[in-house]
Structures are given as C-alpha cells and as structure tokens.
Amino acid sequence: VPETRLFAPATIRGLTLRNRLFLAPMCQYALNDRDGLANDWQLTHLGARAAGGFSLVITEATAVAPEGRISAEDVGLWSAEHEDRLARVVDFVQSQGAAAGVQLAHAGAKAGTEPWLPGYRGASLSAEQGGWQTFSPAGINPVSNLAPSTAMSRDQIQDSVGDWVAAAQRADRAGFDVLQIHAAHGYLIHQFLTPVTNQRTDDYGGNFDGRTRYLREIVAGIRDVWPEHKPLMIRFSGSDWVEGSWSIEDTSAVLNHLPGVDMVDVSSGGIGDVYTGPKPGPGYQLPLATRIKTDHPDLFVSGVGSITSGLQAEEALQETGIDALSIGRAALRNPNFPVEAAAELGFAKPDLPYAAQYWRATWPRN
Ligand code: FNR
Prior knowledge:
globular, FMN, NADH:flavin oxidoreductase/NADH oxidase, alpha/beta, 13 strands, oxidoreductase, binds ligand FNR
C-alpha cells in the first residue's frame, strides 16, 4: 500500500479523521415543506458520501435562525425538533466511519433567495413567493439584486450571537463531531467583516476590531458551550477579490484573535456583482489556503475548489503543505470520490475502503 498524504489519518483535539478528504458544505434546496427540518434527502445524500469514504461529511449551510436561510428549502437548527432530525443523519454518517460536521450559517441580506430558479442571479423571493424581511449590518447589500435589508440594532446583533450559541448546543446534542462557522461567501458574518457592507458607526463596525466583533463574540460564545474534545472550524472567504474589501491579510490577521478555533477552510468570493478574482480552475483558491497554513502552522487548514481527482488532490497536499481538501461538485457527481481516489493512488484490494456492503464492487476487477 503506497504512502500518501491524502489517506494519512489526522487527529484534531479528540477526533481522528481517517483521511484528508472532506465533503464540502452544499445547500440541497430539498425541504419542500419549508420548515428547516432535515429529511430523508439529507440522510441519503450525506449518508452515501460517508459510505463513499469521506473522513468528514459537512452538512449544507444550516441556519441558526429561520430568517437566516439562504432559501426557504434550507436546513435549520433553531429548535429541538431540528436537532432530532439531524441526530438521525449524524448517527448514520458516524456508523460509516466518517465524522459528522455541521455548517452553521446565517445569510443576512442574502437570505430568502431562490438559487435554482431559471435565470437566477441571487435574487430575493418576493412576498408572494414566501420571501421575508432580511437583515444586514448597515442596510447595505453585498450584491445589488437583493431586496432591501434592514440594519440590525445592537439588541438584534446580541440576540443573533445567542442564536449561534444555542444552535451550537443543539449541534452538540445531535452528536456532531465538528462545528463549522460559515463566515464566507458574502453571508452575514462576511457582511460584518467587510467595510463594503459594514458601515456601522458603533463598535460593531468601523475599524478591524469593530468589524470582527460579531464573529469574535460568536466564536467565544460557541467555544464556551462546544465540548473541549470537539474541533471548532471556520470557513472564510480568504479574499472576496474586491478592492478595499476583505483580503487574505485580514483573514490571516483575524485568526490571531479567535482562540479555540482549530480548523480553517479557505474559500473565496461572495461580495460584489462582478467577479474580479483569478480565473476559476483546478486549485485556483489553494494559494489562499497555503498562505493561511504558512502564517498559522498550528491550525489545521483545508482548501477547496475544482479538485476532481485523487492524483490532483494528493499533489495539491504535497505541493501546498495544507492539511486537507474539501470536495464540492465532484462529490455531487460521485459519492465514492474518496474510495475511487484511493484506487487511483494505487491502493489495492483489500485496502479499498468501499462500504462493506459493496465488497463485490472490486471483485472481480474488470
Ligand atoms: C455550494 N457551496 C456552498 N458553500 C458553503 O459554504 N455552504 C453551502 O451551503 C454551499 N452550498 C453549495 C451548493 C452547491 C450546489 C454547490 C455546487 C456549492 C460551495 C461549495 O462548498 C464549494 O466551496 C464550491 O462548490 C467549490 O468547490 P468545488 O465544487 O469546485 O469542489
């Protein structure tokens, strides 16, 4: 069996991961009842990818409050019933040898949209379509085709921090091993981080200290209730590629002020109408993750973006020195991405970690 970085186990706090391939959080828009209650789709989708060999299976953006859902069909975690629904998914994911991660999220001004409608460009649902009033740090939207958002009062900000913490407690009770805070892609935390949308004049805005306050309070509140043995992870847009907005230097700097965070997933983008970043392609976001790993060698850093093969993933880990890769669309196409990556890298039967039920998949091999 060859030695690879991709299939080397990793231990973070009390959690051991079997390899370095994570299922990226991906909204499924699957809850037709619009109640935020995870259903058999989440069980099947996440369960298949746990059986397919991912070491960490992360839920789609899971809203800490109903008004924070990206679409009306998103999963939420704002009540005990939501917790119970997710507990069933967690149990199955763990039974397949994978760790279960939850991505907690609040979309802020980007809430209440219909991402799958024809011609979709991030537009808000109308009231007749079931849309709702959205909130943002200063009533300024991150992209222009959204319905007007309302600036949050200080009380609303503090209540919102409480929503994150309460959702973290539910995530723990549901059995999740890893909690990922969604601070990327132009959603509410990112709306606080960047001066483009955060033009508040109180101490939740203004300078770097003010703009990072909402995130710092969320992290501190969550770390207080999230068990000591469980890793805490953050997903950032390492850069949103907008001049004068949130940069890789800011991402690296804020990590000096987030004690208790163990893992960072580095994505990009989400602010502004026109994309001005590097041409998307294999590994195009990895330099951002590499920079974070260089600046913060003690953090467990994962990268993401257009990783489509085991060989590419292995080479990326060797070349960049980062710790893991999140796989998005390639994992939609192929739930067995890790198992097939193992085959590609020369693991031979019986080392191919197909689910036990699929042992015939490798025999006879033709
Ligand atoms: C996403 N992405 C995403 N990101 C996130 O942080 N939370 C989410 O809920 C979603 N939802 C989502 C849905 C769908 C259908 C796609 C395709 C993507 C972004 C995703 O996690 C990943 O960063 C990108 O897809 C880039 O990785 P790939 O697809 O190039 O491997």
